[in-house]
Amino acid sequence: MLRRDAPRIRVRRVPTFDRETAAGGYVGTYLDLSHLNLTLAITGGIVLLLGLVGGYIRNTFWISEPIVATLVGIALGPALLGIMPGIHPSTHPGAFMHELARLTLALAVMSAAIRLPMTYISDNWRSLTIVIGGGMIVMWLIGSILAAFCFSFGWMAALLVGAVVSPTDPVLAGVVTSGSIAERNIPGRIRHLLCAESGLNDGLAMVVVALPMILMQHADAAALSDWAIEIVLWEVIGGIVVGAAIGWVAMHLLKWSRRRALSETHSTLTIGIALAVTTLAVVRLMGSDGILAAFVAGAFLNRAIDDSERIHEHIQEAIGRFFILPIFLVFGAALPWQQWFSMGWPVLVFALAVLCLRRMPLFLLLGKIVPDIHTRRETLFAGWFGPMGISSLFYATLAVQETGFEQVWPITALVVLASVVAHGITAMPLVRRISTDMCEET
After folding, report:
1. pLDDT at 6 over 50
2. What sections of the protein cross the membrane (predicted)?
3. Measured between alpha carbons, how far is 292 from 240 in angstroms, rounded to an integer?
4. What is the number of domains present in the chain?
5. What is the CATH number of the domain that holds 127?
6. Is residue 3 a part of any domain in this protein?
7. For 377, how many CA atoms within 13 A lie in the half-sphere containing its CB?
8. pLDDT of residue 79
9. CA angle, corner 349, sides to 346 and 352, nearest 5?
10. Domain span at 412
11. Chain mean pLDDT for the chain
């Protein structure tokens, strides 16, 4: 996020875990190291089980793997069985959930960048500019208006909540942008548009998240200067430059290695994961965030991967599943049930309103001017599949740590849960029924 020497941003430390308050805190962010092996065994076993029967569950019951992982987390977590002792709710979000979300996002955006055609971003910059440039701002404002309507806090807090739920999640979007079923039924330009959008706007969302976050602490002209320097120049532009530099080096090293037959095709998978982790760590050590840098680095690495290597994408998805599903397991175990009950109907109304109104009206208005969207069916399809997930959790935990505004966590958690369920249930039937008609029209 912000540089460690930034004078105006205060990072709140995670309080000591209190077992007496564990049953109803905001989020599972405390990792009990004494039970780490049990937690890893449960997590690994669930991922193994989903790997064995995930296809049957998805094709038979039409529910996605993130839904299953979240439900298992709920069942095993403190809310029900309480047999995942390594993950406990504490009083507010902290480092564990935040860093787990950061690593998951870095791997997800790297995977999204590698899945895109080699020159997609440069060839389709008009569509991306409309969907990401104008689209993210509109989704931010719509979410903020809904937050101001549903809750009693002020406009600055509403702008923060709206910003947190504005990015499209690459993990959940991958349900309809990757895999053989998606490739057979959805036109490539739609899949690639959703994939690129979800990969890019996770890092760019820092611009809209940080503005209200800084203004909530320092509502003066200096705050705007900090935002412009620390966020726009350092986080975004700096992240792009650093990610491009790391990706450029990795691209040329891979090409050099291939020319001398020093590496094999399947090593690309390892290189992609290693590049995501390396980029994330390097940029983090520099005091920045790293999500956007990971996507840019992946886009450069993509230029060194030829079409023959893309047949191994299913292997990459399998590896990605191992890194991605655990966070949904943790998320399910950490859901803030008591906070939802205490907040009452407004939080439920907000979650449902965001699900229906945050994105669809935007695409109905902009669909006709996006070059990659050709028909009304495609407009409806792209307008619906803009899920909120790990990226929103990442920014929610960041907002709580930086501002102490703890309500952003239970609000975001319910929005993400609603999105996981709604988009996970509708993905398979709509891909098979609606997108088949789209292919016929094109």
Report:
1. no
2. 36-56, 68-88, 100-116, 128-149, 155-178, 199-219, 231-254, 266-284, 290-306, 318-337, 343-367, 379-396, 408-431
3. 7
4. 1
5. 1.20.1530.20
6. no
7. 14
8. 76
9. 150
10. 29-441
11. 79
